[in-house]
Each structure stands twice: as structure tokens, then as C-alpha cells.
Amino acid sequence: MYRISELAREVGLSRSTLLYYEKLGLIKGQRQLNGYRVYTNGDLQRLKLLLQLQAGGLSLKECLACLDAKVDRQLLEERLATLETEIAQKVQAKVLLSSLLGMDSMRSWHQAMDKQAPDAHFDWLLKQGFTEKQALKLRWLSQDMNVHDQYIGEFDAVFNGLERLGPGSAADTLRAWGKLPDSNGAVLEIGCGKGISTQVLAHHTRGSILAIDNDELTLCVAKLNLAAQQLSEPVRFVCASMTQLPFDSAKFDVVWAEGSAYIMGVEKALKYWRRFLKSTGFIVFSDLVWFTDEPSTKAKMYWSTQYPDMQTVEYRIEQIKRLDFEIIDHFSLSQEAWDNYLQPLKAKLMEHATGTIDTIVLSDLKDEIDIHDNYLGEYGYQFFITKLKR
Ligand SMILES: C[S@@+](CC[C@H](N)C(=O)[O-])C[C@H]1O[C@@H](n2cnc3c(N)ncnc32)[C@H](O)[C@@H]1O
């Protein structure tokens, strides 16, 4: 037998709550000769059950109905579904907190956030003290901010000495260039990397090229490459971010972006870059796209984290038109373009297999190669030659 104060202590509820429950008929005190009310073990057990049902999200009324054996299955199923969602959210919140403390990897969180709320995620990274360049690189590499410095250093070490940072070939660059009406305009090349395409453009232009990249070291290599080919004449290099271009508007005839628009997002890039074009200007860019509406699960899963905004060619075309550009032409990059990127990368990975590079970097690059080896063809790179609508 329990007095009300003892019962209150056992279940962690106040006296007044118990009296209220008694009024509702959940528990039934028996008045003793000395005037005190006492409660049985049965009362205690009903209270414990009630608390558990309440913790499951049931209202007091629903709990009482349940305790009286009138179980409403549909209601319980609904509560169960809600509970499962809440548990999943809590698990995610737990992973986030432990990741922020460096106890867990934040990679999947970053990837999910970048997909669901790219702008908010990006702003948040800046608030964590990352520069715009670092934050974009995290996005570019689909990485976790906790492994930032080491990962990026080692990633750069693998690519050091490799000409191409993505697929491309001189023939494809030239094919796209040939779609432009003349070759004497002012070209703004964005994300020029080591200047491989810049060399092709420099060979064929009768105008000028302003090539930008936000990586000083990469730009130095680009300058040396151009100088070695005696192609420096029409080219000027500027270290700048594609998201904050230090140029006057309406200055260029062509914006050229091979494998770089995705870094800030194709839609954002087209909307922002257009202001630097003359009214008759062109944007020529290449982007990773799906060639099928029904890709294999593995490929789909891989790219959903590595490039969440990857789209079909048809989608990109509609998007380009919606943004007030005409499509002059579009075509898929050749096998040669992929070989130029993948063959040296594979050789470099072999070299590093027994070296000091962290296994995460190597295994990430191996995963990428594995996906290309098995699923390239379901997706690929597409060149889009677009012109501002009048
Ligand atoms: C995949 S590579 C493509 C390089 C080159 N266009 C090519 O096809 O070989 C992307 C390039 O964009 C540069 N990049 C990344 N973020 C950038 C930014 N915010 N502004 C300018 N360049 C950026 C990288 O340094 C890198 O050189």
C-alpha cells in the first residue's frame, strides 16, 4: 500500500496530478480509518503504463482508452509512425552533435545538407570559419569539414603532376569553339585549372582570353604551360572566385567554363555570369549529366552524394532555355576526353598505393574510378553552347 506522497515519489508525478488522475478514475485510493488515502500496487502499475503510453505520444484521453483495453489500432499505428520519424531525427541530431565534437564523420550530413539546403549549408560553413574557397572545395570534393586540411592536402598531392582535373580533350574543346560565329571576341574562362583548354583557345583565338581560377598554385602551372607553348600573348590570368568576379559587366563575348559550373551550381552560375556578357554573348560550359532516366542503383547512389544536382541532358536544356539562353548546340564529351582524365589518374593511384597518402583519399578516388569503369555511359559530360536570348 502506498500513501499519495509515496506513490508520487515512485512515479515522479506531483500530488495534484495524482489527485487529478484519481478524479479521472485511473487510480482508486481507499480511505483508511485514520483518514489517509492509500493506493495499491495495481494503481502504481497503471500509472507506470500510462507514463509509457504518454512517452509514445498518446494524449491522456487516448492513454485512458488504451488502459481500458479499447485499443484503437489505427491510432497506435499513426503514433508508431510519428515515433519512428522522431527517433530517426534524434539519431541524426545525435550524429550531428557527435560529429561537431569530432567523434564521428560529418560527411553524410554535409552531403545531405548540400542536397537539401545548399545555400544554408554553404553559409553555415562560412560561419564555421572556412573561407569561400575552402567551403567551395569541400563541396567540390563532397567532403567533411573535420577532415578538411589533411584530405585536401593529400587530394592535391595525388593531382600534382596530372594535367587534367576532370575529363576533357583538345578535340572536344575545339568542337565547341567551332560553334561560335567568330574567333575574335573577348573570352572569360572560368575555373581554367592548369590551362589545358586555355591552350587550345589561345591557339585559335584572334581576340583575348581572361582566364580565372581561385587556386594560385594551379594558376602558376597554367601560366607556365602557356609560356612553354609560347601561347601567353592573348591570355591574362587572374586569381578570382567564380562567385565574385572582379570585372565590369557586359565586357565579354564568351564565358567559357569546362567542368567548373557545377562548383557553384549550374543555375546560379548561368544567372550570375550572364551579367559579364555583352548582349550578344555566349556561355559555353560542360557538365556531368545523366544519359538515362533510369540509372543503375549504384551509380545513382554514388552521384546523389557526389553531385546532388546532376541532371539529365533534357533537364539542363529546359533549364538553360528557362534562364533565357538559346541552345546553339550540345554534345557529349568523347571517350578520349575520359581517357585523358582517367588513365593518368589510375597510374597515379598505383604509384601512391603504397605511399603516405591517407587511405580515405585513395579509396574515394578508387570508388570514383570504379563507378566510371562500370557505369560510364549511363552518364557522361555534356558540352552546352548557349547564347543569350535577345
Ligand atoms: C574540375 S576542375 C576543371 C579545370 C579545367 N577547366 C579543366 O577542364 O581541366 C575545376 C577548377 O575550378 C577551380 N575552382 C574551384 N572553385 C573555384 C572558384 N570558386 N572560383 C574559381 N575557380 C574555382 C578549381 O581550382 C579547378 O581548377
Automatic annotation (TrEMBL):
<dbReference type="Pfam" id="PF08241">
    <property type="entry name" value="Methyltransf_11"/>
</dbReference>
<keyword id="KW-0238">DNA-binding</keyword>
<dbReference type="InterPro" id="IPR013216">
    <property type="entry name" value="Methyltransf_11"/>
</dbReference>
<feature type="coiled-coil region">
    <location>
        <begin position="66"/>
        <end position="93"/>
    </location>
</feature>
<keyword id="KW-0175">Coiled coil</keyword>
<dbReference type="Pfam" id="PF13411">
    <property type="entry name" value="MerR_1"/>
</dbReference>
<dbReference type="GO" id="GO:0003677">
    <property type="term" value="F:DNA binding"/>
</dbReference>
<dbReference type="InterPro" id="IPR029063">
    <property type="entry name" value="SAM-dependent_MTases_sf"/>
</dbReference>
<dbReference type="InterPro" id="IPR000551">
    <property type="entry name" value="MerR-type_HTH_dom"/>
</dbReference>
<keyword id="KW-0808">Transferase</keyword>
<dbReference type="GO" id="GO:0003700">
    <property type="term" value="F:DNA-binding transcription factor activity"/>
</dbReference>
<feature type="domain" description="HTH merR-type">
    <location>
        <begin position="1"/>
        <end position="69"/>
    </location>
</feature>
<dbReference type="InterPro" id="IPR047057">
    <property type="entry name" value="MerR_fam"/>
</dbReference>
<dbReference type="GO" id="GO:0032259">
    <property type="term" value="P:methylation"/>
</dbReference>
<protein>
    <submittedName>
        <fullName>MerR family transcriptional regulator</fullName>
    </submittedName>
</protein>
<dbReference type="GO" id="GO:0008757">
    <property type="term" value="F:S-adenosylmethionine-dependent methyltransferase activity"/>
</dbReference>
<dbReference type="InterPro" id="IPR009061">
    <property type="entry name" value="DNA-bd_dom_put_sf"/>
</dbReference>
<keyword id="KW-0489">Methyltransferase</keyword>
